[in-house]
Amino acid sequence: MNQLFNEARKAIIEADQDQVKIVVEKALAEGIAAAELLEQGFVPGISEIGEKFENEEIFLPELVMSSDAMKLAADLCNKAVSGGEIVSKGVVVLGTVKGDIHDIGKSIVESFLSASGFTVHDLGRDVSSQAFVDKAIDVNANVIATSALLTTTMKAQADLEKLLVEKSLKDKIKTIVGGAPVSQAWADKIGADGYAEDAGGAARLLTELIG
Ligand code: B1M
Fold this sequence. Notes:
Layout: H1 2-13, H2 17-29, H3 34-54, H4 60-82, E1 91-96, H5 104-115, E2 119-122, H6 129-139, E3 143-147, H7 155-166, E4 174-178, H8 184-190, E5 194-195, H9 199-209
Parallel strand pairs: 1-2, 1-3, 3-4, 4-5
The protein binds CO-5-methoxybenzimidazolylcobamide.
């Protein structure tokens, strides 16, 4: 099994989309959970790429190619997860905030929440606060879950809290926040109902809040 996780990690580092497909197929055939494959195989790959980028060992084109391979991995794993039979524990509207196009972590969160039995409406990336609120009203959501990867876009999570207060929705719709620069202190500061460090944590947090 470790061998397969290593192959997954390498597929991301080498930005090899064909290999991503092969690894996902092999893992599912061997009965490995898609969420486990993501967390223990693909995520370490993109994290390693992130470090190489920060250390200037690779540059933006390589980063983009590995990101595309990672996006494919997350999408394939999400499809595998949503194929199962699920009794909904609650309705979640999920997305990456306005101005931010990082969606790999958000897609992994989607995978974990779906696998944990939540109905997830994924609005994608670069989503405005108004769009989050409109969708939440539309689908009668219990929670709006937002991801922010840039220190400059975290502010959009605070704007969402303000909008919910303005519309008197704060006690009807809960909010959770996440993303690399986000913390519990930030969640407390802006008045979000919860913060999770990773996708597994987001699923546990939602189970506590509404599950
Ligand atoms: Co960009 N980027 N990027 N990037 N990128 C970072 C975030 C950065 C730290 C890299 C760096 O310079 N060191 C830096 C941010 C600096 C800062 O703000 N402090 C950065 C920058 C600067 C930029 C650009 C401005 C670069 C440029 O153009 N000069 C630009 C911004 C574009 C924009 O958004 N407007 C940009 C662009 C890109 C790519 C398009 C090339 C690509 C994104 C592709 C995509 O997402 N489709 C990209 C990538 C891949 C990264 C790094 C390398 C990796 C991010 C990632 O996917 N990580 C990143 C550096 C790094 O993190 N080491 C970096 C893997 C993913 C699984 O982790 O997203 O953290 P993460 O998600 C985790 C947790 O955070 C958590 O669970 C997930 C899984 O466990 N989580 C949640 C996430 N959301 C959650 C929500 C929750 C709960 C938990 O509840 C709701």
